[in-house]
Amino acid sequence: MIRTARVEDAETINKLNKEELGYEMPLSETTKQLKYILAQPEIYVIDVYEEEGTRKVLGYVHAQKYATLLSPTLFNILALAVSSKAQHQGIGRRLMESVEKQGKERGYFGVRLNSGEYRNEAHRFYERIGYHSTKWQKQFQKRFSK
Q1: The whole model's pTM is what?
Q2: CATH superfamily entry for domain 2-128
Q3: What are phi and psi of 2, to 5 degrees?
Q4: CB 3.0-4.6 Å disulfide test: which of 9, 17, 61, 65 passes with 23?
């Protein structure tokens, strides 16, 4: 079943980020960020897929309202992760459908996302569920020292 994430899901989300997406962050930081995100439902969506019976979280999707002067408002997918033990069971598709449904309910134009150049399996997944590549781009960052 799909439901809104809760603070107590932070540990599982943190593990999914590390094991499935390759992003490692201290659990305390994930928990802090999750609290921040959940406090702003008008901007963010963070849904989890919870297995019936066991109530174990097997995946999650995180989206943000994308409002620019360049296009109509969209949802921007910031993360989609499904446990490798539960992939190819339709969980990712259901999570994406949840975001799409919420976007339609809000009157948004659609959904956009970025996917790493090397994530070929993810690219095939997105194409199978109706997404198409619009361009290739490089990402630039400038990090601030503490």
Answers
A1: 0.91
A2: Gcn5-related N-acetyltransferase (GNAT) (3.40.630.30)
A3: -95, 135
A4: 17
